[in-house]
């Protein structure tokens, strides 16, 4: 997420960062404080950002680094008419108050002229100490030490958009934190047009609209698009008259960014040819809590939608997981603008996972592949791809010739494998209880 935001705002990782990528503290090269604040207003993965004044692998190295920091950059924050405090944060270790005071006193060589104010200071300085990632083997001295001026931090974004407080939700409404991470992976910015082909209750549209993008979506489920049928909330039988996607955006003051949501089959494009979307951000159904289906032939069984005012009729057929994802890639290759991004979740049966099964397309470059564990044997991977080549007619079915099309077909049975794992776990728990 942070890499995507850095590429959006013009920053980058420092060359030294590769040395300790597993550290919770990262060093970034960002041209201005304004840009740093802009990054922090968007990220949900980072907790705080600091202007780094010095760092080292020991206290001596840290102090030497601080003495070499340009005095003209320090002085504006050390004036006699200002107030400040120094805060210590240790990762993977707890210090006593006496130890903290000793470390703060060791910084007396810095020319602080202002007054200490612990409750409401103008400037806050932090000592950050990294004691590694292993709680069972905590070293006496930290691996890395940093000192800097606190610039910005935020975590309110997630809480204010909590799904629990949302007007219209479904069985699989996306967690607010993950929605913002996906929008950041997609590098969504003001005046973009963002599309979700499996829109559901519109949770992914909200995060994109928050960043100033115009949003739209489609879904095969007539009830969901029109806010009809059974409710997903506990103790509520049917959806209310104003439970719909538009109401969700209105709840957050984002209705002006809402284009529309249409009933449509993602496997059969309804859009005119051309590069229409700046980002496609979606969470396709896996067949666990929401069925995977598409419009079928008239010969197949006709099903009527429950409690529809239009008495709406549709014909559906099975839609294999592999077909869902390859149709999605083909659609993105054709309809994304150059440099536009596709961000989606790919369900994985972990014992069979290899990187080779990630669906590919000649017009799309794989940017990132991040895992979220669902259980001991299943996970889903957040896949981010970028359009790097203009779509030609010959690219339409090019993936069928690719050796990488067949490996993912094994995941068409993801539902069966998912529930087989659940069944085995229940059986094991019952067996353990009998002991």
Structure keywords:
alpha/beta, Rossmann fold, 2 domains, 7-stranded mixed β-sheet, 13 helices, globular, S-adenosyl-L-methionine, transferase, tRNA-binding, tRNA (guanine(10)-N2)-methyltransferase activity
Question: What's this, in brief?
Answer:
It is an enzyme of class 2 (transferase). The protein has 435 residues and is α/β, with parallel strands linked by helices. It has helices at 2-9, 33-42, 59-67, 71-74, 97-105, 156-160, 176-185, 203-210, 222-226, 245-251, 321-335, 405-409, 414-434, and strands spanning 12-13, 28-29, 48-56, 83-91, 115-116, 123-130, 144-153, 193-196, 214-219, 258-263, 277-282, 293-295, 302-304, 313-318, 336-349, 364-373, 378-387.
Task: Please characterize this protein's 3D structure.
This protein is of the alpha/beta class and 435 residues long. The protein folds into two domains: 1-153, VC0802-like (2-Layer Sandwich), CATH 3.30.2130; 159-297 and 313-420, Rossmann fold. 27% of the residues lie in helices and 25% in strands. Helix 1 (2-9) crosses helix 2. The chain is globular.
- What's the Cα radius of gyration? 26 Å
Average of pLDDT: 85
CATH class of the largest domain: Alpha Beta
Total of helices: 13
Secondary structure class reads alpha/beta
Give the strand order of the largest sheet, numbering strands 1, 2, ... along the chain: 10-9-8-11-15-17-16
Using DSSP, what is the number of strands?
A: 17
CATH architecture of the largest domain: 3-Layer(aba) Sandwich
Basic shape: globular
| SSE sequence, one letter per element | HEEHEHHEHEEEHHEHEHHEEEEEHEEEHH
* CATH domain fold name of the largest domain: Rossmann fold
Q: Tell me the number of structural domains.
A: 2
Low-confidence segments? 300-310
For the record, give the distance between the C-alpha atoms at the N and C termini, rounded to a whole number: 46 Å
CATH superfamily of the largest domain: Vaccinia Virus protein VP39
């Amino acid at each position: 997420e942070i890499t995507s935001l850095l590429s959006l705002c013009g920053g980058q990782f420092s060359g030294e960062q590769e040395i300790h990528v597993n550290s919770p503290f990262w060093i970034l090269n960002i041209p201005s404080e304004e840009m740093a604040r802009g990054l922090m207003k968007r990220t949900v993965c980072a907790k705080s950002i600091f202007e780094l004044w010095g760092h080292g692998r020991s206290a001596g190295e840290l102090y030497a680094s601080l003495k070499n920091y340009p005095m003209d950059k320090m002085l504006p924050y050390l004036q006699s008419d200002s107030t400040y405090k120094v805060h210590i944060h240790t990762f993977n270790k707890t210090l006593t108050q006496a130890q903290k005071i000793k470390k703060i006193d060791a910084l007396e060589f810095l020319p602080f002229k202002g007054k200490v104010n612990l409750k409401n200071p103008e400037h806050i300085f932090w000592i950050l100490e990294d004691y590694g990632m292993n709680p069972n083997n905590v070293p006496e001295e930290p691996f890395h030490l940093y000192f800097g001026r606190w610039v910005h931090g935020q975590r309110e974004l997630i809480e204010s958009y909590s799904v629990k407080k949302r007007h219209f939700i479904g069985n699989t409404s996306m967690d607010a934190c993950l929605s913002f991470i996906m929008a950041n992976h997609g590098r969504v910015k003001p005046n973009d047009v963002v599309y979700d082909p499996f829109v559901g209750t519109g949770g992914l549209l909200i995060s994109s609209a928050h960043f100033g993008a115009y949003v739209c979506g489609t879904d095969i489920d007539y009830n969901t698009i029109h806010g009809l049928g059974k409710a997903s909330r506990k103790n509520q039988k049917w959806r209310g008259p104003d439970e719909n996607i538009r109401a969700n955006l209105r709840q957050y003051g984002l209705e002006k960014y809402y284009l529309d949501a249409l009933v449509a089959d993602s496997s059969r494009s309804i859009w005119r040819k051309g590069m229409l979307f700046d980002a496609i951000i979606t969470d396709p159904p896996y067949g666990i809590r929401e069925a995977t289906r598409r419009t079928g032939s008239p010969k197949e069984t006709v099903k009527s939608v429950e409690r529809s005012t239009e008495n709406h009729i549709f014909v559906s057929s099975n839609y294999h997981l592999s077909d869902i994802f390859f149709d999605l890639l083909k659609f993105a290759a054709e309809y994304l603008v150059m440099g536009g991004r596709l961000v989606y979740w790919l369900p994985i049966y972990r014992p069979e996972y290899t990187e080779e099964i990630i669906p590919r397309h000649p017009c799309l470059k794989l940017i990132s592949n991040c895992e979220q564990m669902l259980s001991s044997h299943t996970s889903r991977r957040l896949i981010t791809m970028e359009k790097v080549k203009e779509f030609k007619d010959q690219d339409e079915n090019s993936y069928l010739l690719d050796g990488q099309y067949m490996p993912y077909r094994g995941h068409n049975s993801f539902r069966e494998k998912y529930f087989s794992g659940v069944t085995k776990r229940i059986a094991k728990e019952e067996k353990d209880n009998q002991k």
